[in-house]
C-alpha cells in the first residue's frame, strides 16, 4: 500500500513539473504577444538593399529583411570580443553580436527607391557618371516600426512565423518485447497517443507512418540516416521532420527480499512483479539535411501494482489508471512537450513540385498554417550534388525570388511570382522566410 501511494505521489510531482506549451502564433506581420509579462520595445529603422541587376520587388523584400535584422540589434544585445596582441600589434580582432530580442510585429511606414547622393553622381575626375552607372548606385529603402519582445515563447521568424513544419510520426520500436508481454497494443497505441497529444497542444501538421523502417536494426537501435531511406519518406509525405521513438526498457521485476519470496513459493503463492523501469529514447530527424536535430532520453522507476494485463490495451482509460500507465502518461507528456518546443516556430522548408501556366505548385498543405497572400522565399538549386567521403552533402543554392500564395488546396498551394531574380524551376527550395 505504501509503495502504491509513493508511486502516485511521484507521478503527481512529474505532472506538476510539465510546462504548458506555447500556442502557435496566427499572424505574420502583426503577431500577437504571447504574454503580457514581457513588455515590447518598438524602434524605427530603415532597411536598405541594392537595386543593381534586380527588380524593385526583389530589392524590397531584401530591404525588409535588412530592416528586421537592424531592429533586432537595438535591444538586449550581447557583444563578445576576441582580440589578440602580439609584439604590440593587434593580430586578431573579432566581435560577435547576439540579439536576445525577437520581432513581435512590424509596420512599414515609408518605402521607395533612393537616388544616390549628389557627390556620388561624379567620378574622381569630376565628370558626371553615365545613367547606367548612376542607376547601379540606387538603393531601395524601407522605413519600418519594429516591435521587439524577449518572450521565450514568441517566434522570431517574421513573416512566416505562424507556419508549422510537417512532422511524420513513425511507429515506435521496442528493444524489450519480453518485458512488454503484459501490455497489448503497445506500439500502435504509443504512436496514436503521440499524435493525439501533439494535436491537443496545437500542433496540427502531422501524419502517421505505418512502419518503423527508418530505425536501423543492424546497429545499436537508432535512426537510419541514409538518404536512400529518408528521401522516400520526404518525397511521399512532404514531411520536413520525422519523430522516432525507441522503448528501451519496460521490464518488470520483484524487489521483495528473497526470504519472503521463498516463503510465498513454499505456500504456492505467486510472486508478482512489484517494480518496473521504463525508458524511452526519441529523436527528431531533419529529412531535408538527413541528420538528428533533437535527441532525448526519459526514464522512470515505478513501484507497486506494475502488471497491466492484456485486457487493458495501451491508450485506454483503464491502462492509464494503472501504475505503469501513469508513468507512460508522464513520459508521453514530456516527449510531446519537448517535440513541440523544438518544432514550434521553426521555418518551413518545402519544394516547388510543378509549374503550370506561370503558376508555381508548392508542396505545402493548409495544416502547415499557410494562408492566401503569404509570401515565400525561393532558393534555386544548381550544380551537381556535393559529395565528401562517399556522403551526399546536397546541392548548392542561391536566392532566386519570392512567391505569393494565390490558392491553397488540401495537399498543395498555388503561388505566383512576387519578385524574381534568376531561374526558378521544379525542385527548387521554398522557405517561409
From TrEMBL:
Record-linked InterPro entries: FlgT_N_sf (IPR038180)
Domain of life where this protein originates: Bacteria
Record's keyword annotation contains Signal: yes
Keyword match Signal: yes
Signal peptide range in chain numbering: 1-21
Keywords tagged on the record: Lipoprotein, Signal
Protein name: Lipoprotein
